[in-house]
């Protein structure tokens, strides 16, 4: 009988459409969507008062980005404690208070806009609120087990913002209406957290020394890419003369963003079905093209072009979504803490935005903001940053590593064998049990194991029972998942690196 193929028979439950649909969580989708929409809507009151616009609002947003970055970094360092408490009522109450306070303090801008104390206080409150709210929902979505929860949340968030955009054409925007929208979204996102119960497996908080060298290098590249995207995004936002918040409030072309994200969601569903990494790779390239083309054309078509800004926003949303998907995949495949990984990647994104705002303020201070050459220079700079981000974030090898089976077949086979050997050592399996484990992990049937090892079916059943007990699993699916996680740490490097890691394990 032909031996089953490792790659074709080992189930990839987290990467199939059936499992993705089964794991869909409407509460998580709506909660994360409302949290993302709130991140934009909370600034609307600033646009109702000319005294708050300009320098004061930009410094407020810069400080908010800096505080959000600091909040996420602190959460990353305290990941073990936060992962254990994120589903507790105390944590959810804290998130509710901070997010509501972040909405209301912005509404006070008309009274205290010129006071440095207000800018400082509002920056701290909005920064902490946004960091905690986003982090909470990302942890929920990662533990839900379906990447479609995140992608559909992005789509729903863009749909909500487009509805707000259309809504502003029929009802005059006033501070009361804007604050009401902000409070509604903050309350919805926060209260839905109380409806969530802990779901999914636990994730580990590895130290730097415990992370495979190739995985560590990829995490560094991921953070650099997130920083570059955040910086390029902020530069383009300030090229647009209408102002980003004004675009969200009155830009009927925001439906373009909804359409692009709908296509991306369809692409992700097809990707999950095909189990190939190329789908994500091409989605990324499409997002980069949208951002690059719109950034290059801004100086020539006109900085007030809402059409170009809508395409740029679509590309930025796609890039941010793909970064979050990478976080999801890494957490699922390597059992990394979502608090640690999201805290690190999102904090550098915020830092990129902070640097972008500072550069914009410096251009104004030196009188370069209205200079045609300066606008062209910023446009080209944004394009170069996006190209660099593409190199850091989405090389095809990295895409295979994160999304697909990827890699050379020799490396994959060797990684599978080493993963099984490691489980055999840790579970103190006998030699015969180790052989049965390897065949089970390949998807072999009981009859095939009988023929392969020349043993009876009752002996196979006994060995399977002992293996399940020693490895603390209760079904073959759980065994598949365990072997997959054990193999993945070896599957991301070269054959030589696999051998070196194995030698360390054997010490």
UniProtKB/TrEMBL annotation:
Any single GO BP term: regulation of DNA-templated transcription
SMART domains: HTH_LUXR
Bilayer-spanning residue ranges: 20-39, 59-79, 91-112, 118-140, 152-171, 177-195, 215-232, 252-270, 282-301, 307-329, 341-360, 372-395
Family annotation (InterPro entries): Sig_transdc_resp-reg_C-effctor, Tscrpt_reg_LuxR_C, WH-like_DNA-bd_sf
PROSITE patterns (alphabetical): HTH_LUXR_2
Matching Pfam families: GerE
Superkingdom assignment: Bacteria
Entry keyword set: DNA-binding, Membrane, Transcription, Transcription regulation, Transmembrane, Transmembrane helix
GO molecular-function terms, A-Z: DNA binding
HTH luxR-type domain ranges (all copies): 422-487
PANTHER family reported for this sequence: DNA-BINDING TRANSCRIPTIONAL ACTIVATOR DEVR_DOSR
Protein's name according to its UniProt entry: HTH luxR-type domain-containing protein
Lineage: Bacteria, Bacillati, Actinomycetota, Coriobacteriia, Eggerthellales
């Amino acid at each position: 009988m032909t031996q089953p193929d490792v790659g074709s028979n080992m189930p990839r439950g987290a990467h199939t459409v059936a499992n993705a649909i089964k794991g869909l969580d409407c509460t998580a989708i709506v909660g994360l969507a409302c949290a993302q929409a709130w991140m934009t809507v909370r600034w609307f009151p600033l646009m109702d008062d000319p005294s708050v616009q300009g320098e004061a609002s930009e410094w407020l947003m810069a400080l908010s980005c800096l505080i959000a970055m600091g909040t996420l970094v602190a959460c990353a360092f305290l990941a073990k404690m936060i992962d254990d408490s994120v589903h507790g009522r105390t944590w959810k109450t804290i998130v509710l208070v901070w997010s509501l306070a972040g909405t209301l303090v912005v509404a006070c801008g008309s009274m205290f806009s010129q006071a440095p104390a207000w800018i400082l206080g509002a920056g701290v409150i909005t920064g902490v609120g946004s960091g905690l709210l986003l982090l909470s929902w990302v942890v929920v979505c990662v533990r839900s087990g379906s990447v479609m929860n995140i992608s559909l949340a992005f789509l729903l968030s863009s749909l909500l913002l487009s509805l707000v955009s259309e809504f502003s054409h029929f009802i005059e925007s006033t501070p009361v209406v804007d604050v009401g929208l902000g409070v509604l979204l903050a309350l919805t996102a926060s209260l839905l957290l109380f409806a969530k119960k802990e779901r999914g497996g636990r994730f580990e908080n590895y130290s730097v020394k415990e992370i495979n060298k190739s995985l560590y290098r990829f995490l560094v590249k991921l953070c650099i890419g997130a920083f570059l995207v955040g910086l390029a995004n902020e530069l383009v936002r300030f090229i647009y003369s209408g102002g980003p918040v004004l675009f969200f409030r009155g830009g009927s072309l925001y439906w373009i963003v909804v359409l692009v994200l709908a296509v991306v969601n369809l692409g992700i569903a097809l990707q999950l079905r095909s189990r190939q990494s190329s789908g994500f790779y091409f989605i990324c390239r499409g997002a980069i093209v949208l951002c690059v083309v719109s950034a290059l054309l801004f100086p020539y078509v006109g900085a007030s072009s809402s059409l170009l800004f809508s395409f740029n926003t679509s590309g930025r949303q796609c890039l941010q979504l793909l970064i979050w998907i990478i976080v999801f995949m890494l957490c699922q495949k390597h059992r990394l803490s979502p608090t640690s990984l999201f805290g690190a990647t999102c904090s550098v994104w915020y830092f990129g935005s902070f640097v972008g705002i500072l550069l914009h303020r410096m251009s104004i201070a030196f009188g370069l903001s209205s200079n045609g050459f300066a606008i062209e220079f910023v446009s080209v700079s944004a394009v170069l940053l996006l190209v660099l981000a593409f190199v850091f974030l989405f090389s095809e090898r990295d895409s295979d590593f994160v999304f697909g089976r990827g890699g050379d077949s020799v490396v994959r086979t060797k990684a599978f064998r080493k993963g099984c050997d490691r489980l055999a050592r840790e579970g103190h399996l006998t030699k015969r049990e180790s052989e049965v484990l390897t065949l089970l992990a390949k998807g072999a049937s009981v009859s095939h194991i009988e023929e392969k090892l020349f043993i009876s079916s009752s002996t196979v059943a006994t060995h399977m029972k002992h293996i399940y007990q020693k490895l603390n699993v209760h079904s073959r699916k759980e065994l598949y998942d365990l072997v997959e996680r054990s193999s993945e740490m070896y599957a991301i490097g070269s054959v030589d690196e696999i051998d070196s890691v194995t030698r360390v394990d054997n010490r």
